Hints:
The chain folds into three domains: 3-106, no CATH class; 121-421 and 714-720, Rossmann fold (3-Layer(aba) Sandwich), CATH 3.40.50.2000; 425-706, Rossmann fold (3-Layer(aba) Sandwich). Helices cover 44% and strands 13% of the residues. It is built from 31 helices and 20 strands. The longest helix has 30 residues, at 465-494. It is globular and about 80 Å long. The protein binds pyridoxal-5'-phosphate. The site of pyridoxal-5'-phosphate has 12 residues, from helix 8, helix 26 and helix 27.
Amino acid sequence: MPQQLLKNGIIQSGARDVRRAAQALAADVPALLAPLARVAYNYNWVWHPDGEQIFRDIDAYRWRLCRQNPVRFLQEAPERSLERAAADRSLVARAEALRQHLEDDLNRPPSDDGIPPEHPVAFFCAEFGLHRSMPVYSGGLGALAGDILKEASDRALPMVGIGLLYRQGYFHQRIDVTGMQHEYWYGTDPERRPAARITTEDGEPIAVRVPIWGEDVKVHVWRVDVGRVPLFLLDTELPENNPRQRFITARLYDGNREIRLAQYALLGAGGVRVLRALDIEPSIIHMNEGHPAAATIELVRREMKAGASFNEACERVRRKVVFTTHTPVPAGNETYSAREFETVFPNVAKAMGVDMENMLRLGRIWPDNRDEPPGMTALAIRMSRSTNGVSRIHGGISRRMWQALFPGSSVENVPISYVTNGAHLPSWIAPPLRRLLDRYLVEGWHEQKKVTDPATWEAVEDIPDEELWAVRNELSNRLIGWVRSQSVTDRLTRGDSMDYVLKAAQTLDPNVLTLGFARRLATYKRLHLIVQDPQRVLRLLEGPCPIQFLFAGRAHPRDEEAKRMLQKMFELKNDPRVGGRVAFLEDYDMGVASLMVAGCDVWLNLPRPPLEASGTSGMKAAFNGTINLSVLDGWWAEAFDGSNGWGIDGAEDPNAGAKDARDAKAFYDIMEHEVVPLFYDRDANGIPRGWIKRMKACIRTIAPRFGATRMVDDYVRKIYNASR
Ligand SMILES: *Cc1c(COP(=O)(O)O)cnc(C)c1O
């Protein structure tokens, strides 16, 4: 790699374009605020305690209107707000401090993790959740990928991300008066986001060609900076492409199978070509979930072009590819018919000089079975030197599921390991709590070496109960304030009666125990368990020591069962007896998630075992002292110790009805006998001592083990640096 492509261990491809975009933005704001234009073009601010706050302090209304997109905010903020901010000395100093923080971060040397900066890890994923202002994610997989990039940046691990720039992102959700979900999309303009189109020396956009459907699709590449880690996003929305080609990067997980397969071809094969066009030769290709598996086909093609035989080429590719699987059910692993593969990749086999059948065999569990549709996961496993699941239980499930790919291996000996997921602490701890931790934990507690040391977190016990409780109240008030204003808007938009609209301003009560349930509304997440026994849930909502529910989540557009379940929840919400104790936030995204995980008291998760591969929202909740009440599946089976939350039996049971009935009963029992009494048991000052004890146990035991630092430690040690 040419040396000018590396600075302090950071890949520079496209860095000049980002700098130019930031300079253009700086020219449009008062000179004293120019540092903020630089800050706006690197997502590093997202996990700085003052990052979000400074934009809000400049113009809170506009910040919300721009959906927390810093570039649009600085482009569109009224001059009056910017002038006022520029005249505020302390705000100007804060802007400069943020910029300095960013420069210091970029000027650190690369880590000594054994990955050479000139040969970084290339992390491929179909979605990345960095912040709600970059809508190229849908849920947990994306949030995890984003957290991995942020953590790689924190530890200066040489890494680049490869993804797609969806112009319309994931669908947005609206609920109508009957509680029915509707989906809509709108286009976004990347010029108004913290991204820059990468150009060559002479200012022309870098263009890569990827053969899909038998013709070349032209691709541009955008750079998004995530601290020290560049994320490269592929874009086909170009006038030279025909409408079908342009649509490839329109929507995340489009409903059309052929478009989806084309997206995977673009991500995998296109991603490899983009790396080459940018002169980046990665030492490791990390495929996060099976979507990018076509990367291995492109790598094989390249090896064969250099003279290797098909088998040699596969062997060489395997030496540098690693794979993380996230799906615990066979149906979740997408397969495509041989015909679909041939339609999307017609010339690839020919270009490789192998017949199509040879390629399709790589994606079948039983290569000789021509009736078996090849799948992305089987292809990924077969072409990787290592495969891992995302929790201890999920590792076991994956060994069972994929045993047939390793003929002669007993289930225990199937070479699939696990790295339990983690969440990026600095991104997910709410600033008021972070300030409290700054006061009571050792200095630099969030740094790599300290944050995973349980001793660092012992100091949580030293925080005075009153202070922790005051922070809980602040976060709870913040959340409920948001819920109320959002609910008023939602009801107005929906056309509800004015009576009902006005009631929204009294939704939820900061003094009442709040249960949060927010996630993809898939049937296996079993939201319906909550209303399994309507009388019992009404008693909980209406009792002298009441509870309240806050829900959020999107149902897959084609999942009618999940949509009906959502409608059922709306019936509860519309019940005049308890309407004020049930709220639903539309359009669940990372912004809603960060408010909810910090502002609820209990985080509820009721998946049907073993379908929760890991789960990460419960970790984010736990970092904030929001206590988990969850089925002992995925990560929670590893984290629960009896003192730091509540657990519901995680055993598998083929009899779904019986299992549902048992788990619903367990949920009500725990609520009635443990959760509610503990929350309302107050001392003379109104402080729930027992509750706070559990909050502390939750933060103290979970933060060191389920942060992204431990997760990336594991990836570096067990996966990236395992003998090659
Ligand atoms: C963390 C997160 C998730 C993951 O949630 P789980 O319920 O743990 O699967 C999903 N969506 C968003 C927006 C998140 O931030």
